[in-house]
Please model this.
Amino acid sequence: MTSSTAPLGRVLIIAGSDSGGGAGIQADLKTVMALGGYGVTAITAVTVQNTLGVTGVHPIPVEIVLAQARAVL
Model:
């Protein structure tokens, strides 16, 4: 791997999960990868959504979000 193709570094993404894939963790990971980074995540909520809207949200307890972040850092 040359320096121009090596990952730029880890990026911690703290966000909700979008079941439709167009926003949240899913979209953030695509962006980080497109910019050459390596995305690691802490999920704050799981949503039920599509292009028409959000119909449900299941929040993740704060202690779990913090534990996820600590684990990947």
